[in-house]
Write a structure and sequence with these properties.
CATH architecture of the largest domain: 3-Layer(aba) Sandwich
EC number: 2.7.7.7
Number of helices: 16
Number of domains: 2
CATH topology of the largest domain: Rossmann fold
InterPro entries: DNA_pol_HolB, DNA_pol_III_delta_C, DNA_Rep/Repair_Clamp_Loader, P-loop_NTPase
Number of strands: 5
Shape: elongated
Strand order of the largest sheet: 2-3-4-1-5
Radius of gyration: 25 Å
CATH superfamily of the largest domain: P-loop containing nucleotide triphosphate hydrolases
Structural class: alpha/beta
Strand content: 5-15%
Catalytic activity: DNA(n) + a 2'-deoxyribonucleoside 5'-triphosphate = DNA(n+1) + diphosphate
Pfam family, one: DNApol3-delta_C
CATH class of the largest domain: Alpha Beta
Protein name: DNA polymerase III subunit delta'
Distance between the termini: 58 Å
Helix content: 55-70%
Length: about 325
């Protein structure tokens, strides 16, 4: 990420927080430790780097913004500044040795000035030992030091650490920003709305793209739906042959149920609105065909059946039995 990208992303995704921190810095009221909490892709690291750039920049603009061009700004975004340290997970976790290194740097004076900044990415991934080691430092901050802890799940952070930081909740991604992040992952635009319906986490989308799970799931649900529309009893068999292999864990089982709900929400959209933006745009003909056939009462019954799948999952009813029984109920409703 370049220095100008840091400024652009922060301005785009967290404009209000950016302006607030500019005021805080101008009033010399920056706290010693912050916890930035928010979803993937909302700009937590960009905001932390922006604040750091503002503190070190040699050529502030007339609006007190970092210039994004000087040597200080460049070294910060290149993660090469000696007084700005960024810690990221080593493998699956942040280990105690990484925090010990951080502690040793806390005890030193700034190499080029009187201030130092530390950024800990994915702070929820600290081991217990690492978290306890860090706690001792933020309990008694030394010198002119500011730390930023970045997390996607503050519930996994030690309460004692949270109590000693200023918690900042970052705004969720706007629809356009989320779609821009999806584009970076080479997600097909026709999948944007469905993914926005299913998740707000970019990392989750990345996981679903592994082994083309997302594409296979959309295909399986679309095939099942087309059989339902054609009143084809093999929709029942399609659960076993096409769907079950994709339901490898409870999380993915839930996603598939939400996909089934989403495509019937498209039917609802087609029946009662004139402008359509379907979750499953490639199934538009089948969606409109069913919308013309089904009445309001039938559609409500179908949606209620699909919603009840969540309750059945919660009491550990067989997932295969849930989907097969729901398929038969939907076909009975459509034939009533």
């Amino acid at each position: 990420m370049t220095q100008n990208q840091v400024i652009t992303e922060t301005d785009s995704k967290q404009k209000d927080l950016m302006d607030n921190f500019l005021r805080v810095i101008k009033q010399n009221e920056l706290s010693h430790s912050y916890l930035f909490s928010g979803e993937e892709g909302v700009g937590k690291l960009s905001l932390a780097l922006f604040i750091t750039m503002r503190m070190f920049c040699q050529n502030l603009t007339s609006e007190s913004m970092p210039c994004g061009e000087c040597d200080e700004c460049r070294r910060i975004t290149d993660l090469q500044h000696p007084d700005v340290i960024v810690i990221k997970p080593d493998g699956l976790s942040i280990k105690v040795d990484q925090i010990r290194y951080l502690k040793s740097e806390f005890s030193k004076s700034g190499l080029e000035g009187n201030q130092k900044f530390f950024i800990i990415c994915d702070a929820e991934k600290m081991t217990t030992g690492a978290a306890n080691s860090l706690l001792k430092f933020i309990e008694e901050p030394m010198g002119n030091v500011v730390s930023f802890l970045l997390t996607t799940n503050r519930n996994l952070i030690l309460p004692t650490i949270i109590s000693r930081t200023q918690v900042v909740e970052l705004n969720s991604l706007s629809r356009s920003d989320f779609e821009a992040e999806l584009a970076k992952l080479s997600v097909t635009p026709s999948q944007y709305k469905l993914l926005s319906r299913l998740t707000n986490r970019i990392s989750t989308v990345q996981e679903w793209q592994e082994d083309e799970w997302l594409a296979h799931s959309i295909s399986a649900v679309s095939h099942w739906f087309n059989l339902i529309v054609d009143n084809d009893i093999t929709a029942f068999a399609a659960i076993k042959t096409n769907v079950m292999s994709l339901a490898s864990d409870n999380s993915k089982k839930q996603v598939i149920i939400n996909m089934l709900l989403s495509i019937f929400e498209d039917v609802l959209d087609a029946k009662f609105t004139s402008e359509h933006n379907f979750n499953f745009p490639k199934q538009a003909d089948s969606i409109k065909k069913l919308a013309n056939h089904v009445n309001k009462s039938q559609l409500i019954q179908i949606l209620e059946e699909l919603l009840s799948c969540n309750k059945l999952m919660a009491i550990n009813v067989s997932y295969k039995n849930i989907l097969e029984a729901t398929t038969l109920k939907i076909m009975r409703i459509l034939n009533s």
